[in-house]
Design a protein that fits this description.
Elements (H helix, E strand, L loop, with lengths): L6 H15 L18 H26 L4 H14 L1 H10 L3 H16 L8 H4 L9 H7 L7 E4 L3 E4 H11 L10 H18 L1 H7 L5 H18 L6 H10 L4
Antiparallel strand pairs: 1-2
Helix pairs in contact: 2-9, 4-5, 7-8, 7-11, 11-12
Amino acid sequence: MATRIDSKKFRLAAASLLSLALLGCATVPPSARSPRDPWQRVNRGVFKFNDVFDRAIAQPAARGYLRLPNPVRTGIGNFFDNVTYPVVIVNALLQGQLKPFVRDTGRFVVNSTVGLGGLFDPATHCGLPYEDRDFGQTFGKWGFPSGPFVELPFLGPSDVRDALSRIPESYAEPWVYMQNPYWEYGTLLLYEVRERADILPLTDQAEKTFDPYAFERNAYLQNRDFMIQGPKAENGPEEELKELQQGGP
């Protein structure tokens, strides 16, 4: 559920995390402790910071985005899915998935040409569906351990492996190659707003639980485990997630 960033934003987040770590003193409910979250006290401090920023800026922008006409939002979504698709293509190759690599390359070419730069999605109708791969998933399939859960400033839930994977991923994103700062930051801002709008339903669901932080953490870990391990992923986070949805143990 964490969004992609450029290298400048990653350095800002890392500096903010260091500052907030010195202030992390949130109380940890016993029922929300997790062996995958040994830094929970600091993480909860960062989560509170993120929540203030999210409620004040990110959520209003995302809800405003949802008021755009549906065809406009569809075109924006198609465009960003396509322009960031080289990340998926590269990671298919790094994971040794040659057929998906060819299929993903074909999808990118079709949507970039027939789809008018990605505004339309004819590739899906041609049997070339959208796939989701990233460097964190690749590192996991290579056998790198996930490390502890970590809440990143502005970026939300992650783990050490996924946080580090943002560094090579930032160089596969289109924004780092834009020479015009207005286009770079303008399109990046719109991309982030669209990404935030996509997870508003999860936010609304988390706010109904007795511990939104633990809900977000467990939802993230469960999703990442499934992306890397598939159906063989352990059920620990899933069981904790059900408890949070039901109001706690």
